[in-house]
Specification:
The structure holds 2 protein chains of 2 kinds. By secondary structure, chain A is of the alpha/beta class. Chain A has a single domain, classed as TIM Barrel. Chain A has 11 helices and 8 strands. In chain A, helix 4 crosses helix 5 and helix 9 crosses helix 10. Chain B is of the alpha/beta class. In chain B, the strands form 2 sheets. Chain B has a 4-stranded parallel sheet with strand order 3-2-4-5, with helices on both faces. The longest helix of chain B has 13 residues. The radius of gyration of chain B is 22 Å and the shape is globular. Classes of the chains: A alpha/beta, B alpha/beta. At the A-B interface, helix 5 and helix 6 of A face helix 9 of B.
């Protein structure tokens, strides 16, 4: 049973964080990160070969989190698996007591470290959510065959208020909720005004919204993100602020804290999702600094 | 059309190593429009190969298209003596063309391709080609403003766009690979959105496009038309 779902349904403000699994067959870094974050978060996402860079699988990472006492959110992309493989992993997740899943389209292989790979995208994220809901609620697989014990998963999706065309992003979120998404973890929020507009525009949707935070390490990092990371839009004034700062990392953390404080004030925000990309050690500082819990 | 690129001359020489007597086949269809297997390219290839001490015992140019086996069969019947002397038939047509030749006489003579087949695309002008169709077997162009998301969205999404679309461009535009090629990639869903908006048909996007049925895309496919069956039956009676 998902305690993330329970807390959100009870109206509690939640904090989730992203844990990037290692490019390694040894599990120690995940367990270490779990220990570090355990007291500060409600659940942790394990990414699925994010940006198309090969890493330990999300399923194994989530299993390690369960054993470390951190509730996992298993991220799954549509990029590398067809519907047979996805369903098989979902049954595996159920068997390993992984209670939450987040479905993402998946960054294109051309942006990763295996641009020569064949991408799959048999299903898109909306169709995948549709399939998982069918498995969970109807107890059948996508072809209609009965499942002996269906998986019980709290289903999440992403939303990007900064991608184009904006109207279609809203429509997509509407579709995601319609097919079964129960919570949203948004793309990194920097421009608060556009995010607030977005919240207004999706007010009618019955879905929990966790606002995404990606702390910035430096102005160079921010420029890199703007250029190379899909869906990221960092305003110039934030980059300038980092340029001027003496201690850029500290400034980045401070900016993340300020954004969190503003987000927490917004009525429609049900929680914060911190994606400190391979910089997870700063999550406690942000959570405490913004008094998120 | 099926868009092709000629293999490098070095690669062609490498595959022909040890073989002297060649037949070159050119195609008046797509390969002519792609400047990979037209009359001029075949003539040029003949000269280059002769300079490398190869013997071109015949060049065959199919004005129509090599992929229609009836033409190549006719050539074979009329020029059997050349075919019997050849070590390799080097085909400058798409992979379909090369295999049409191979299906006919590949068990007697080696059939090689001199091109790489890239995609089904359109030609805006000589030298400028765009991928446009993935031959998925389930066309939805009437719903998407005449713009195919299966072949023009980098991820083939049916309920697009993904979160990587920015200022009307696909996220792969920002990859080093596309950057090095020197062009931008439009977000197909951005184009679809703009087109449908123009025609007041944005409602098309409200429905959820169901998961694609790939049953009719499982390789290798074949189609037998009823009219052929009827024809064969009528003539056998």
């Amino acid at each position: 049973m998902s305690s993330l779902q329970k807390k959100l349904d009870e109206g509690k403000f939640v904090v989730t964080a992203e844990i990037g699994p290692p490019k390694s067959a040894v599990e120690d870094s995940i367990i270490e990160k779990a220990k570090m974050l355990k007291e500060h978060i409600d659940a942790a996402n394990v990414t699925d070969n994010q940006r198309g860079v090969v890493r330990m699988c999300s399923l194994a990472g989530c299993h390690l989190l369960v054993h470390s006492g951190v509730e996992p959110v298993m991220q799954m992309t549509c990029r590398d698996r067809n519907r047979i493989a996805i369903q098989s992993d979902i049954l595996g997740a159920g068997a390993l007591d992984i209670p939450n899943i987040l479905i993402v389209t998946g960054d294109h292989v051309l942006l990763g470290d295996h641009p020569m790979a064949k991408s799959v995208y048999d299903l898109d994220s909306i169709q995948t959510i549709q399939m998982i809901k069918l498995m969970r609620d109807e107890g059948v697989d996508f072809a209609g065959n009965e499942l002996k014990s269906p998986p019980n998963l709290y289903i999440g999706a992403t939303a990007n208020p900064y991608a184009d065309p904006y109207e279609l992003q809203i429509l997509r979120l509407e579709k995601k909720v319609e097919v079964g998404a129960q919570f949203i973890q948004s793309q990194a929020v920097y421009d608060l005004e556009r995010f607030e507009q977005f919240l207004d525009d999706v007010q009618y949707l019955d879905v929990k919204i966790l606002a995404g935070i990606v702390p910035l390490k430096s102005d160079g990092y921010a420029r890199f993100m703007n250029k190379r990371i899909p869906g990221i839009r960092i305003p110039q004034d934030m980059i300038d602020r980092l340029t001027k700062a003496k201690d850029k990392e500290q400034e980045g953390i401070q900016m993340a804290i300020e954004t969190c404080i503003e987000l927490k004030k917004m009525k429609r925000v049900d929680g914060i999702h911190i994606m400190a990309i391979f910089w997870e050690e700063i999550v406690p500082e942000i959570v405490q600094g913004a008094k998120l819990r | 059309m099926i868009v092709t690129e000629q293999k490098s001359f070095e690669e062609i020489l490498e595959m022909l190593e040890g073989y002297k007597n060649l037949i070159l086949v050119g195609c008046g269809g797509c390969a002519t429009k792609c400047l990979t297997g037209g009359k001029e390219q075949i003539q040029e290839m003949k000269q280059k190969l002769e300079l490398q001490d190869k013997k071109i015992i015949k060049t065959i140019f199919i004005d129509d298209a090599v992929c229609d086996q009836r033409f190549i069969r006719l050539e074979y019947l009329e020029n059997r003596e050349f075919f019997e002397k050849a070590d390799v038939i080097q085909v400058f047509a798409c992979g379909v063309g090369a295999q049409t030749v191979s299906d006919l006489i590949g068990d007697q003579i080696l059939v090689y391709s001199g091109v790489n087949t890239r995609f089904s695309g359109s030609m805006e002008r000589m030298g400028l080609y765009f991928e446009r169709c993935s031959a998925c077997g389930e066309c939805i162009l009437h719903l998407t403003g005449g713009i195919c998301p299966v072949s023009r969205c980098a991820k083939g999404l049916l309920n697009g766009p993904c979160g990587g679309s920015k200022d009307g461009k696909c996220e792969i535009t920002n990859s080093k690979i596309i950057e090095s090629k020197g062009y931008d990639v439009d977000c197909a869903w951005y184009l679809i959105y703009e087109r449908l908006k123009k025609f007041g048909k944005l409602d098309n996007l409200k429905k959820i496009f169901p998961a694609k049925d790939w049953t009719d895309d499982q390789k290798p496919q074949q189609i037998v038309r009823d009219l052929l069956i009827e024809f064969i039956e009528a003539n056998s009676e």
